[in-house]
């Protein structure tokens, strides 16, 4: 993998931070949700966002 320049690293960190925010919000929504089907969908979205965040973080390492 090529070395990332400063702008690319900054953009990755911004995307990772955005995913962290989305994960937190989706977790809160899922906890507050009373509809089982919607709750399951939100939990899947949390997992998807966590996976994407991890993939983005792998570019920094």
Automatic annotation (TrEMBL):
Record's protein name: Spore coat protein
Organism this protein belongs to: Bacillus bruguierae
